[in-house]
UniProtKB/TrEMBL annotation, chain A:
Component of the 7-subunit TFIIH core complex composed of XPB, XPD, TFB1/GTF2H1, GTF2H2/P44, TFB4/GTF2H3, TFB2/GTF2H4 and TFB5/GTF2H5, which is active in NER. The core complex associates with the 3-subunit CDK-activating kinase (CAK) module composed of CYCH1/cyclin H1, CDKD and MAT1/At4g30820 to form the 10-subunit holoenzyme (holo-TFIIH) active in transcription. Coiled coil: none annotated. GO terms for cellular component: transcription factor TFIIH core complex; transcription factor TFIIH holo complex. It comes from Cucurbita maxima (Pumpkin). It is found in: Nucleus. InterPro entries: TFIIH_Tfb4/GTF2H3, vWFA_dom_sf. Its main location: nucleus. GO terms for molecular function: zinc ion binding. This is General transcription and DNA repair factor IIH subunit TFB4. The gene is LOC111489720. Belongs to the TFB4 family.
Automatic annotation (TrEMBL), chain B:
The gene is LOC111470852. Residues 195-247 form the BSD domain. InterPro entries: BSD_dom, BSD_dom_sf, Tfb1/GTF2H1. It comes from Cucurbita maxima. It holds the Pfam family BSD. This is Probable RNA polymerase II transcription factor B subunit 1-1. One of its GO terms (cellular component) is transcription factor TFIIH core complex.
Length: 296, 595
């Protein structure tokens, strides 16, 4: 089993971290029922484990207000929980998922997020990267890791900085981020994530064939990808969110010191505190204007 | 620059002091004609622009009248005085474009600007460098023509943004000492015609210089005897007679001749000056010397390793020490001179001047020998060949080829369509938080009770997915992006495409100058910005025209391409206006103080 003392990992052994979007607001409006979606995903996870005995799967729930580890194949050494109808993986995962949904509902009540439909992708990405760091530090022998985002909710521009940081962190640790985006728009965040980390971005057209997409495109291990032709994104939306209002912008102002992005001109960078110099003349006129305003 | 013909009344002046002949100056693209009002006057002109090297003009506001000075390439110039400066400007611009068109004169604008900006002194080499840059890069030349000759940017402004370009070319020039040819000239091979006893030596100025450098005794003799005692020709004849005698190894004959002719004997004797210097010289080899490789170095393919004498056959006749000269001595001497480097820098044509220059350089070497030696060695640490390329403490701007941008735009355009369609379908979540969570939990319990779908996927659907993926992969691979016919830019008719690309490059250039002028601190920057703004609004209108005139099929694509350009320009205009307002508010405030 995976926990056997002497593991000799071949180059096609994978450690797959799946980020599962469990945003209730998205699923309640989406055409594909969540149960159908789960059925495809569970079958996919099972097939990953079957593909290679040493493969490992970690599932992290991307909730609306919180994130949680839902399943880790290496922590269950025996698969005795079979009940005839479903593999142990599914039972455990579904149980954890139910708990997680209750917890997520709880945390939304404590800390409501106003006016957004997006789920907490930045959180689950960070958790995935933390887990992978732990794996990296456990020794030089570990399966080849990759992250798969199963996302449906729209991008939350307010998470731009956190998500970009996660993406760059993944890029640094050479972890590809695959994204299977089932929402209606394209997700700029996931497009960038896959583009930067060298993963695959795919927006399936046939939702009832989701399993086929998953097993054809996302089940391929990193080694096989060197000789397989996987779908490529036609274009990547590289637009950034401004740091001040979290709006997605085409053109903006960039801090010359820390490269923070703003949608309009600021006197001072909110990130690094640099004061954007004007000419002494201009500063003078600004201060004069300021003084003048209250009087008139 | 559209005008093909200019006619202005002007006065032709042969010199600055000349009061001038009134008449009419006509210019076409190829030549200019001056017809004096008085038909009998002799000062009629008909000159083609290709004989004109450059032009200068007096500045408006200076106390000089409006003069245009056209410099002829053989020296001399034509000066025209105009009635007013506007006439002058029209003619100046015309001349500028005519000179640029006549091919060999991209230098004209530079000269003009040297005249208008006297503080910017350009060396000839720098100017040549700029010209070469322009010639190599047609896009740059187009920009230069448009903005510098069009008066939007000045020459120095234009090049200031391209310092890197100039530096690159500039730094390739070596500052190393020019080396001395390493082939053995001592053995100037005689050519005999075989029938007569005549032997011919070929002598070039270069060889003469080399002989002087290699043989100080010959050098000394030349200075002493030529041209007082004998002619140059006689001198060389004698020299080569001695050489010939030497090469025949007939030392007895040589000795006999030497006894008869003391001048000839000089050439056969050991070089005393050399012997004295030899030891000193060993100590002052310049390590920075760039040895020049020539055929002499190719000793593998040359017969006798390029040396026409064979050291092995050297006869050692001890009885005649005087006339003995060994190959190894020659080789050493050759090596020493090569290591000395070229010490003179004069025209080699006249051997007398060469000889004198060599004396001067020798004296100079004697005097400052030690100092120079030390300097050179100190400099040795910085031999350019071995230096890493200059690295500057700033990161160079990464300005991409606009084509890349346009290619990416295609995908974005498709996506925008996609997104707008999808956006309409998006429905706002109407469920409350509790209801949403409830429905999700229901789904989970549903799958828990009923198990996974069976079968997970229908075969037909799987086939559809496969087909879709295959199509997607092959289309992204073979059709999109890579294929030039598929990108928006390439699908446009050629003239439109070129126009758009050119506008894009122009806008980039203008914006670069525009934004770098802020904050405006001097009146110079102020005028520069307003100049730039005018140029930009002109391009803005031109873009608009393109959008309107293009065929209906392409209008949408063109407007997609033009939009970002307009946006960039709009941002600049907005900034300009805001800045202007701030300024006017400030200046309006000043007289009244606080109100």
């Amino acid at each position: 089993m995976a926990s056997a003392p002497s593991k000799l990992y071949a180059d096609d052994v994978s450690l797959l971290v799946v980020l599962l979007d469990t945003n209730p607001f998205f699923w309640s409006t989406y055409s594909l029922p969540f149960s159908k979606f789960l059925s495809h995903v569970l079958a996919f996870l099972n097939s990953i484990l079957v593909l290679n005995q040493l493969n490992e799967v970690v599932v992290i729930g991307t909730g609306y207000a919180s994130c949680k580890y839902l399943y880790n194949s290496s922590s269950y050494s025996n698969r005795s929980l079979e009940d005839g109808r479903m593999p142990a993986l599914c039972t455990r995962l579904l149980n954890n998922l139910e708990e997680f949904m209750i917890g997520d509902e709880q945390s939304i009540k404590e800390d409501p997020r106003e006016g957004t439909m997006s789920s907490l992708l930045s959180g689950s990405l960070s958790m995935a990267l933390c887990y992978l760091q732990k794996v990296f530090r456990s020794g030089s022998l570990h399966p080849h890791p990759r992250i798969l985002c199963l996302q449906g909710s729209p991008d939350g521009p307010e998470q731009y900085v956190a998500i970009m940081n996660s993406i760059f962190s993944a890029q640094r640790s050479m972890v590809p981020i695959d994204s299977c985006y089932i929402g209606s728009h394209n997700s700029a965040f996931l497009q960038q994530a896959s583009y930067i980390t060298g993963g695959v971005y795919l927006k399936p057209q046939q939702m009832d064939g989701l399993f086929q997409y998953l097993s054809t495109v996302f089940a391929t291990d990193l080694h096989s990808r060197t000789f397989l032709q996987l779908p490529k994104s036609v274009g990547v939306d590289f637009r950034a969110s401004c740091f001040c209002h979290k709006k997605t912008i085409d053109m903006g102002f960039v801090c010359s010191v820390c490269l923070s992005i703003f949608c309009k001109h600021h006197k001072k960078c909110s990130t690094c505190g640099s004061v954007f110099g004007e000419t002494p003349v201009a500063v003078d006129s600004v201060s004069k204007l300021k003084r003048k305003t209250p009087e008139t | 620059m559209g005008t093909k013909y200019v006619q202005k009344s002007a006065k032709y002046k042969t010199s600055v002091k000349d009061p001038g002949t009134p008449g009419v100056l006509e210019m076409t693209e190829r030549k200019f004609v001056f017809r004096p009002s008085d038909p009998t006057s002799a000062s009629k002109l008909d000159v083609e622009f290709r004989f004109i090297k450059g032009h200068k003009n007096t500045k408006e506001g200076s106390n000089k009248p409006p003069w245009l000075n056209l410099t002829r390439d053989q020296g001399g110039s034509y000066i025209f005085e105009f009635k007013n400066f506007s006439d002058l400007h029209v003619c100046r611009e015309f001349v500028g474009s005519a000179l640029a068109k006549s091919g060999e004169a991209p230098q004209a604008p530079s000269e003009k600007l040297v005249a208008t900006f006297p503080h910017e002194q350009l060396s000839k080499s720098e100017m040549e460098l700029r010209m070469r840059c322009l010639q190599e890069d047609s896009e740059l030349q187009k920009l230069h023509k448009q903005f510098v000759i069009g008066g939007v940017l000045t020459e120095s402004e234009f090049w200031a943004a391209r310092k890197k370009l100039l530096e690159r070319d500039y730094s390739t020039k070596s500052k190393q000492l020019v080396g001395f040819k390493s082939s053995m000239v001592l053995d100037t091979k005689p050519m005999s015609d075989g029938r007569t006893n005549k032997v011919t030596f070929n002598l070039t100025p270069e060889i003469k210089y080399q002989i002087f450098a290699l043989k100080p005794a010959v050098h000394q003799a030349f200075l002493n005897h030529v041209p007082n005692k004998m002619s140059e020709k006689d001198f060389w004849t004698k020299y080569f007679r001695a050489e010939y005698l030497h090469s025949t190894k007939n030392s007895i004959a040589a000795a006999a001749e030497a006894a008869e002719d003391e001048e000839l004997a000089l050439f056969l004797k050991d070089d005393e000056i050399l012997a004295a210097e030899t030891r000193k010289k060993i100590r002052r080899v310049d390590p920075t010397l760039d040895l020049e490789a020539d055929l002499g170095d190719d000793y593998i393919h040359l017969p006798d390793h390029g040396i026409f004498r064979d050291g092995g056959k050297e006869i050692t006749e001890s009885h005649n020490e005087q006339c003995r000269r060994t190959l190894s001595q020659d080789l050493n001497r050759q090596g020493a001179v090569v290591l000395e480097g070229r010490t003179i820098d004069v025209d080699l044509e006249d051997p007398r001047t060469v000889a004198e220059a060599l004396v001067r350089s020798r004296h100079a070497v004697e005097g400052s020998e030690k100092q120079i030696g030390l300097d050179r060695i100190a400099r040795m640490t910085a031999i350019e060949d071995l230096q890493a390329p200059h690295s500057y403490p700033f990161a160079p701007l990464c300005i991409k080829d606009p084509r890349d941008y346009f290619d990416a735009q295609q995908a974005n355009a498709i996506k925008t369509l996609d997104d707008t369609r999808a956006g309409m379908q998006q429905t706002k979540c109407s469920l409350s938080t509790t209801e949403a969570y409830c429905s999700l939990r229901e789904s989970i319990s549903e799958i828990k009770s009923s198990g996974l779908n069976h079968p997970i996927i229908k075969p037909e659907v799987a086939l559809m997915v496969y087909n879709g993926l295959t199509q997607n992969i092959s289309s992204t691979k073979y059709q999109l992006g890579k294929n030039p016919q598929e990108s928006i830019l390439e699908s446009l008719p050629n003239p439109t495409k070129e126009e758009l690309l050119h506008h894009w490059i122009s806008i980039q250039e203008l914006l670069r100058h525009f934004w770098s002028s802020y904050p405006i601190t001097t009146s110079y920057l102020y005028t520069k910005v307003s100049r730039l703004k005018d140029a930009m609004s002109k391009i803005y209108r031109q873009l608009e025209e393109i959008k309107e005139t293009v065929q209906a099929d392409f209008r949408h694509q063109v407007s997609l391409l033009v939009r970002p350009m307009h946006q960039a320009l709009d941002a600049a205009f907005q900034h300009h206006d805001a800045d202007l307002q701030k300024r006017s508010a400030k200046s309006g405030e000043r007289p009244n103080g606080y109100t």
